[in-house]
Amino acid sequence: MVKKTARSGITLLTTNLIVKAIQKNDFLSRLDDEQIAMMVDLLMSSNYKPSEEVIKEGSEGDSMYIVAAGELIVTQSGRDLRTLTKGDVFGELAILYNCKRTATVKAKTHVHLWRMERQTYRTIITNKSKKKREQLMGEVISFIRRMGKGEHFGDNQILRTATCTADGPVTCFSIDKE
Ligand code: CMP
Question: In the CATH hierarchy, which fold is given to the domain comprising 3-124?
């Protein structure tokens, strides 16, 4: 029996194929586990027939792809460059470098692909940067709060969210939770 993941309905075998493809690709391997999980959830499935063009050299790029099944040929100015098979990633260059498609990619056989749109990829990357920024801002705010005589701290936290450091000699009264 083929197991399915709870959220997306993608089979575990497919998830493994996608994760492996991401990890062996130079630029996608920089994604962390959380970003890879989001990517797996947001990929869309598409199919092509033999000799159908998936990418045209010189055109604008809006998606990148992972080969789920089948074979494709990469050509540049009419020259064969490479055959792509299951687990290969392609179409990433125009998305990453904001350039025109550097080569043509055509289906040799019936092909099943996992596709991610440029905007979805950008959202995954931007979300992570936004979270990082927010976390840094939190840390900065706690550093800039200075307390003096008569003020109290540490009163309402179960898990500590900030560090309080003595800046010079300090005497405190403490009282335990009970
Ligand atoms: P992109 O330029 O977005 O669209 C065409 C894709 O073909 C490109 O991304 C790469 O994924 C792939 N490609 C380009 N040049 C080569 C090459 N020399 N060998 C293999 N794949 C290539």
Answer: Jelly Rolls (2.60.120)
Of the candidates 135, 169, 139, 174, the residue with the CA atom closest to the CA atom of residue 153: 174
| Closest residue by CA, ligand 1 atom 12 | 90
Q: Confirm or reject: Cβ of 18 under 6 Å from ligand 1.
A: no
Separation of CA 93 and ligand 1 centre (Å): 7
Give residue for tokens 């927010």. 134
Do residues 71 and 54 touch, judged by C-beta distance below 8 A?
A: no
CB 101 less than 6 A from any atom of ligand 1: yes
Place of tokens 């391997």: 29
Kindly tell me the number of DSSP H helices and DSSP E strands found in the chain: 4, 8
Give pTM, 2 decimals.
Answer: 0.73
Tens place of pLDDT per residue across the chain (178 aa): 333 343 445 688 888 889 999 999 887 888 888 888 888 888 999 999 999 999 999 999 999 999 999 999 999 999 999 999 999 999 999 998 889 999 999 999 999 999 999 999 888 888 777 777 777 777 666 566 788 889 888 876 677 777 888 888 888 888 887 7
In the block, which residue shows the tokens 């009419």? Answer: 78
Ligand 1 centroid distance, CA of 24 (Å): 15
